Amino acid sequence: MKTKFSMKIIVIGVIVIMGISLGLGGLNMMREINEEKSFPVGDINKIQVDMGTQSVHYIETEDNNEVKVHLHGKAMQEINIVSEIDNRTIFVKTQRKLKMPLYEDVVLDIYIPQKYAKNLSIDTSSSSGSTKMDTFDLANFMFSTHSGSLEIETLNAEKISVSTSSGSVNINKVNAKQLDIKGHSGKVKVAYDEFENQNINIETSSGGVTLALPSTAEFLIKAKTSSGKIQSDFPITMTGNNDKKNIEGQVGMKNNKVLLQTSSGSINIFNK
What is the rounded average pLDDT of the residues 242-256? Predict the structure, then answer.
């Protein structure tokens, strides 16, 4: 019995040592990823990205002539940028030397010129990584993703349209005449510093909705949730058949429309 027990201890010890050795070897196999590609601004109005589960960061730059993509980080295999321009769209994806899943920690930075104030459409519907954006001033903004999150610092545009299957949406500061957000699951958080002649339409199947508006905001409100609560810092003059899960009313005198709907989750309207 003692012999068998001793053999088990030895086998376990060998397995542990091999695991540590492989781990250290894996660290030594890590390679630096650092590749850039640039495109003339021209008439580009759409960027389509396929990054799998990795993150994409959009950065506004003072360089007025080029859109630049920069892939950087570390990985256990060679990763390259594959890109092309077709019909005013930049197609960007990453290509791995090996098809097997190996450890990687890479980010794709996309630099967009400050003077680019046209339409911008971002499509990451074949990816599940997060998308982060700094401050941008655009004509119109359209974003589509499958299951990745979207976080924007500041976004100014005439119209903003966001579509996601699953993933949170967080816009820290927005200014848009029309904001449309549609998702299946994931929290939505949006904040306005000013609210004049603007409309909001947010629909999500599963996930809470948080909307922050300035104290001077006046609007028509329709909010509905199947399971959850509706809370508002604003005094609402009710105009229809209302209950805790379905309200319709008026704040102030203006006719800005605020439509909020979720099947599963609470709705919170805060006074900034």
Answer: 90
DSSP string, 238-256: E-S--BTTEEEEEESS---
Instruction: Taking residues 90-112, report their average pLDDT.
Output: 90
Q: Do 272 and 212 form a contact (C-beta atoms < 8 A)?
A: yes
Instruction: In whole angstroms, give the CA distance from residue 138 to residue 47.
Output: 14
Which residues have a Cβ under 8 Å from the Cβ of 145 and sit 6 or more positions away? 123, 124, 125, 127, 131, 163, 164, 165, 167
Q: What is the mean pLDDT of residues 118-139?
A: 90
Rounded to whole angstroms, the Cα distance separating 67 from 61 reads 9
Give the bridge partners for 133, in sequence order: 58, 152
Instruction: Give the residue-averaged pLDDT of 45-60.
Output: 88
- In the numeric block, which tokens belong to residue 72? 């950087």
- DSSP 8-state symbol, 27: H
Among 211, 219, 246, 255, smallest CA distance to 235 is for: 219
Lowest-confidence segment of 124-128, 153-157, 191-195 by average pLDDT: 124-128
Phi, psi of 263 (to 5 degrees): -80, -40
Residue 66 has pLDDT above 70, yes or no: yes
Contact 52, 128 (CB under 8 A): yes
Distance CA(65)–CA(252), nearest Å, equals 46
Residue 80 CB neighbours (<10 A): 14
Nearest to residue 136, comparing CAs of 95, 177, 172? 172
Number of H helices, E strands in the chain: 1, 21
For residues 223 and 204, give the distance between their C-alpha atoms in angstroms, rounded to a whole number: 12
Q: Determine the Cα–Cα distance for residues 115 and 67; give it in Å rounded to an integer.
A: 11
State how far the Cα of 126 lies from the Cα of 114, in Å rounded to an integer: 27
Instruction: Tell whether the model's pLDDT for residue 108 goes beyond 90.
Output: yes
pTM flag (> 0.90): no
